[in-house]
């Protein structure tokens, strides 16, 4: 065996690493150039080009009879494309699908698949021919406009590129994955592409902004809506970009519910799979509020009906669908194509210029071809006319010749003709000797000379060349003009989680031991004054509800702690629970320090600079800080107020631009009203200034409010459920730091003051007791009373129970009230 190798002189040593590299590179380039990527000029991959060329050779124009797809595929794989028949048929099918191509290149007859992902019928059942647009891709191919190269077995030739009049790469787009690279070019509207090319023809130095005035962006065959122009701009400028495409929908209102109807889908989204995806998410309760999904699509177009449950907000469900399903997709644009046998990522302007250069080449080559043909015919006509001028001598010469070759030689020598002219004279019929025929020849010669002059002028003038390109582009535009299908919206705001959550009023409660929860306000029915209320929460024996307030789901809650730190949390992030559930420990929602206690919770809808946050402490200190300073809170919170050792925060209020006074009330029934400007805005870490001085040693601040006018009413409530409404004007204005005036006449029957709220026509009063009961009362049912009075019974308390907190909530609508009754 060793001898066999020693005697064999053909054995060569090869580095396997270099061999693998070389082989893989050859394979890569073969895939890149020969299969996966489109040509930048005609926008076709080799398989598509070969299909169209084979159909052209079979005479399958838009006016011809259909032929079996199997016949076309057989010609393609037998003559030009040595690959699998299924791959060729798939490419043929895609070119016939109106939901895949912006303007299809194949006119199919039979089942060519659907947007639901249904497979096309077998190629033996379907028939096809070219569309009239495809003919524009092949126009003038027989006029030496493009180079032809040998086919795979060197028995035939095929075009290297098609002489297209249509900017097909951008018109129908292209997608493909090669080795180490991919292309994803979106389709566009033909009208806009032609207009963009005309802009460049008129001004070759045109900038992208000028082109984008007429070329808005991609236009998908399935319609939909593109959100945000920035992604389009990036892709056109750099060759790469991302755009968001959404389904187009509308809302239909039924008697008691709403219906979402999907009219258009994002490009390349499978409708059947989308419906399955939505159904699965509804089943898994990831999307709520949907009762039924129906596909009512027909020949007229797509119609997917999503029925909603009663009282469900369609906007919330729709945003959930966009967020969780393929009703919104990201289309990654990569403008990669082949030029000069090399792959390259192009900008939009480069692709448009490339197409125009291709058209110039085609028109020049076509003109040269037609010019040579015209010159050849003119040359023959010159010989024929010369023969007619000397017809008797010509006939005599021919008659005197022994045979045709001799006659040809004699004619050439005697009449100074070329061999081609002599052959034409010998082939001339006797009918050409009539006067009418002679006139026809003279007219034809004259027209030919004019045609030659025109063709030569094209080759000499770039202006004329551009004019022809322009005329042909306008002709294509007029013939294949279509309206825009995809809507483009300037801005895109990514769907935030807030968009998926209904913005509805919630009752947020927090217990002494730090359990917080939110309950939909509609779970609490309105009761008459003096009612016993409903249990709002189940607490431990040593726990009780310490605070509660009404806020919308999208609002922000600002938590101020005993250490003067401020945290914030969106209401929807608080777990929703039933009326009797105890909720979740707030320490699990906020990053509080050990033993840090929340003292005040302030809801707000925004952090506007024309608002401020007023802090009120137990010892009568008041401080005001601009609300904008709390707009970006770190997870560990920020310093809101510096407190004295023996002081703690009682409450904090939003001060709006129309606020005129601050109002502070104490446990022993004293109060003070002073101008808001008496407290200037301070930094976050400031201590504040004195708001009220106490008349009694055991007194402390229990509540505070902001007042807009003296007509505004203040509702004061005591521990034993006694309350009254009093106008702000009865509490005379004082300077900040005074001892105030009597706010409520206190007796053992009333107990100490619990708090104060401003009366609003569209608000009800919510009263919370230490046993966890909550009652809702119409503020207008509470009697007005003077400053130095006690008031009326608001809630009847059981023995040992007392009011611990009060708050305002929105009035229920009459319809809801009737339903509850």
From TrEMBL:
Q: Where is the Topo IIA-type catalytic domain?
A: 37-500
- Extract the InterPro entries matched here: GyrA, GyrA/parC_rep, Gyrase/topoIV_suA_C, Topo_IIA-like_dom_sf, Topo_IIA_A/C_ab, Topo_IIA_A_a_sf, Topo_IIA_dom_A, Type_II_DNA_Topoisomerases
Instruction: Name a biological process GO annotation.
Output: DNA topological change
Q: What's in the GO CC field?
A: chromosome; cytoplasm; DNA topoisomerase type II (double strand cut, ATP-hydrolyzing) complex
The record's GO molecular-function terms, alphabetically, read: ATP binding; DNA binding; DNA negative supercoiling activity
Catalyses: ATP-dependent breakage, passage and rejoining of double-stranded DNA
**Active-site residues, as the UniProt record annotates them:** 125
The role this protein plays is: A type II topoisomerase that negatively supercoils closed circular double-stranded (ds) DNA in an ATP-dependent manner to modulate DNA topology and maintain chromosomes in an underwound state. Negative supercoiling favors strand separation, and DNA replication, transcription, recombination and repair, all of which involve strand separation. Also able to catalyze the interconversion of other topological isomers of dsDNA rings, including catenanes and knotted rings. Type II topoisomerases break and join 2 DNA strands simultaneously in an ATP-dependent manner.
An additional note in the Swiss-Prot or TrEMBL entry is: Few gyrases are as efficient as E.coli at forming negative supercoils. Not all organisms have 2 type II topoisomerases; in organisms with a single type II topoisomerase this enzyme also has to decatenate newly replicated chromosomes.
The UniProt family comment states: Belongs to the type II topoisomerase GyrA/ParC subunit family.
Q: What is this protein called?
A: DNA gyrase subunit A
């Amino acid at each position: 065996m060793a001898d066999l190798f020693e005697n064999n002189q053909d054995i060569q040593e090869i580095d396997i690493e270099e061999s693998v590299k070389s082989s893989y590179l050859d394979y890569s380039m073969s895939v890149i150039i020969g299969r996966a990527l489109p040509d930048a000029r005609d926008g076709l991959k080799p398989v598509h080009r070969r299909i169209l060329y084979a159909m052209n050779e079979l005479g399958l124009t838009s006016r011809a009879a259909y032929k079996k797809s199997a016949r076309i595929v057989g010609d393609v794989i037998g003559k030009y494309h040595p690959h699998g028949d299924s791959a060729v048929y798939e490419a043929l099918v895609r070119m016939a699908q109106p939901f895949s191509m912006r303007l299809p290149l194949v006119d199919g007859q039979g089942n060519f698949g659907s947007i639901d992902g249904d497979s096309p019928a077998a190629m033996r059942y379907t028939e096809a021919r070219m569309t009239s647009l495809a003919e524009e891709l092949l126009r003038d191919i027989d006029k030496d406009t493009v180079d032809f190269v040998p086919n795979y077995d060197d028995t035939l030739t095929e075009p290297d590129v098609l002489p297209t009049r249509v900017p097909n790469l951008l018109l129908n787009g292209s997608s493909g994955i090669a080795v180490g690279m991919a292309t994803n070019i979106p389709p566009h509207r033909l009208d806009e592409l032609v207009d963009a090319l005309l802009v460049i023809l008129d001004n070759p130095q045109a900038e992208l902004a000028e082109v984008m005035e007429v070329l808005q962006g991609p236009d998908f065959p399935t319609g939909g809506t593109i959100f945000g122009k920035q992604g389009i701009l990036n892709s056109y400028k750099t060759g790469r970009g991302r755009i968001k495409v959404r389904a187009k929908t509308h809302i239909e209102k039924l008697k008691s519910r709403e219906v979402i109807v999907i009219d258009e889908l994002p490009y390349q989204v499978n409708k059947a799979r989308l419906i399955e995806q939505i159904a699965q998410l509804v089943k898994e309760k990831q999307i709520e509020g949907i009762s039924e999904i129906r596909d009512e699509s027909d020949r007229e177009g797509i119609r997917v009906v999503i029925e909603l449950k009663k009282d469900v907000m369609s906007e919330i469900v729709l945003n959930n669908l966009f967020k969780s399903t393929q009703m919104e997709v990201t289309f990654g644009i990569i403008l990669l194509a082949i030029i000069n046998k090399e792959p390259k990522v192009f900008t939009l302007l480069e692709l448009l210029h490339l197409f125009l250069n291709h058209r110039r080449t085609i028109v020049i080559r076509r003109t040269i071809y037609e010019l040579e043909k015209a010159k050849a015919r003119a040359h023959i006509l010159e010989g024929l006319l010369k023969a007619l001028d000397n017809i008797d001598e010509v006939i005599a010469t021919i008659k005197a010749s022994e045979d045709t070759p001799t006659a040809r030689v004699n004619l050439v020598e005697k009449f100074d003709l070329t061999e081609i002219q002599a052959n034409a004279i010998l082939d001339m019929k006797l009918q050409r000797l009539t006067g009418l025929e002679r006139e026809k020849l003279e007219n034809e010669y004259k027209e030919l000379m004019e045609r030659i002059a025109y063709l030569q002028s094209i080759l000499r003038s770039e202006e004329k060349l551009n004019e022809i390109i322009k005329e042909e582009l306008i002709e294509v535009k007029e013939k294949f003009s279509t309206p825009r299908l995809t809507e483009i919206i300037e801005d895109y705001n990514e769907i935030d989680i807030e968009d998926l959550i209904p913005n509805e009023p919630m009752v947020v409660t927090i217990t002494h031991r730090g359990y917080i929860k939110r309950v939909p306000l509609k779970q609490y029915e309105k009761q008459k004054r003096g009612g016993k209320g409903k249990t709002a929460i189940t607490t431990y024996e040593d726990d009780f509800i310490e605070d509660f307030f009404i806020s919308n789901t999208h609002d922000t809650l600002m938590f101020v702690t005993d250490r003067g730190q401020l945290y914030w949390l969106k209401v929807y992030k608080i777990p929703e629970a039933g009326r009797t559930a105890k909720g979740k420990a707030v320490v699990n929602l906020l990053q509080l320090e050990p033993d840090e206690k929340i003292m005040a919770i302030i809801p707000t809808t925004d952090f506007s600079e024309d608002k401020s946050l007023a802090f009120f402490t137990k010892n009568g200190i008041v401080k005001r800080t601009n609300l904008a300073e709390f707009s970006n809170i770190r997870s560990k919170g920020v310093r809101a107020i510096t407190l004295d050792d023996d002081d703690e925060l009682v409450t904090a209020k939003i001060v709006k631009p129309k606020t005129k006074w601050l109002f502070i009330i104490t446990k022993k029934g004293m109060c003070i009203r002073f101008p808001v400007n008496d407290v200037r805005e301070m930094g976050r870490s400031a201590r504040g200034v004195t708001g009220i001085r106490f008349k009694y040693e055991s007194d402390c601040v229990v509540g505070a409010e902001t007042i807009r006018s003296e007509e505004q009413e203040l509702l004061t409530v005591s521990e034993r459920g006694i309350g009254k409404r009093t106008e702000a004007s009865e509490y005379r204005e004082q300077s900040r730091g005074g001892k105030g005036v009597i706010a409520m006449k206190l007796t053992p029957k009333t107990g100490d003051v619990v708090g104060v709220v401003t009366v609003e026509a569209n608000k009800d009063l919510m009263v919370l007791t230490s046993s966890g009961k909550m009652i809702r009362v119409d503020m207008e049912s509470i009697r007005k009373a003077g400053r130095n009075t006690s008031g009326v019974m608001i809630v009847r308390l059981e023995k040992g129970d007392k009011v611990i907190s009060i708050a305002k909530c929105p009035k229920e609508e009459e319809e809801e009230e009737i339903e509850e009754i």
